[in-house]
Amino acid sequence: MNTPSHRSLSKGFTLIELLVVIAIIAVLASAGFAVGPAMMNKAKKLNAQATATSIANAVEQFYTEYSALPDPGSNTADKDISTDSGDLLDILVGGTKAGSITQNPRKIRFLSVKDAKNGMDGALYTGSAISKILDPWGQPFYIRLDYDYDERLTFTPQGSTQVNLNGRRVAVYSLGVKPPATANARSLVKTW
């Protein structure tokens, strides 16, 4: 008669095998948690870079169309304009404000940006007019425009070193993620 051996009766994991599997899962999970924030920050930077590039391209297309830079005031010197006010943005989207119609009479939409989610990372609206464009960290972008038309931009972004750009009419940047207390400068997201 055939009697079953002791080995064929055990059909589950031993305690040692179970502990090894749990240890492997714990190591993989801890590695994933360490990489997760860095990957999220990199994705935010790429998103901000795409938005900054869209804004810079919109200004260049406006210049190509009208042979002038969009100007929500009467500027004669290089100036930073923040995207937390909507006047320049209204000009670039072909809006209906009085200054926008004067500067963009054909109402050409030069700028298209995704809508913001949770008040960050995109365009915010007041009614149907665009009021702000914010980066993934909830801060505005800064648009440096060459209003003296010498194709030279010199400026110092907040918390950064001086920037000198030759042959450019526009530069767009975001201050990016705030650095840890031990770091000196912000990690700018920029178009140059």
Give the neighbour order of strands across the main sheet.
1-4-7-8
Largest sheet: 4 strands, antiparallel
Q: Write down the overall mean pLDDT.
A: 86
Order of helices and strands: HHEHHEEEEEEE
* E-strand count: 8
Q: Report the sheet-strand fraction.
A: 15-25%
Radius of gyration: 27 Å
Distance between the termini: 85 Å
Compute the number of helices.
Answer: 4
Inertia-based shape: elongated
What does this structure look like?
The structure is a single chain. The chain is α+β, with helices and mostly antiparallel strands. It has a domain of 126 residues. 35% of the residues lie in helices and 18% in strands. The chain contains 4 helices and 8 strands; from the N terminus they run H-H-E-H-H-E-E-E-E-E-E-E. The strands form 3 sheets. Strands 1-4-7-8 form a 4-stranded antiparallel sheet, covered by helices on one side. Strands 2-3 form a two-stranded antiparallel ribbon. A two-stranded antiparallel sheet has the order 5-6. A hairpin with a 2-residue loop joins strand 2 and strand 3.
Q: What is shown here, in short?
A:
With 192 residues, the protein is α+β, with helices and mostly antiparallel strands. The chain has helices at 6-9, 15-66, 87-92, 98-103, and strands at residues 79-82, 122-126, 129-134, 141-145, 152-155, 163-166, 170-174, 189-190.
Could you give the topology of this structure?
Elements: H1 6-9, H2 15-66, E1 79-82, H3 87-92, H4 98-103, E2 122-126, E3 129-134, E4 141-145, E5 152-155, E6 163-166, E7 170-174, E8 189-190
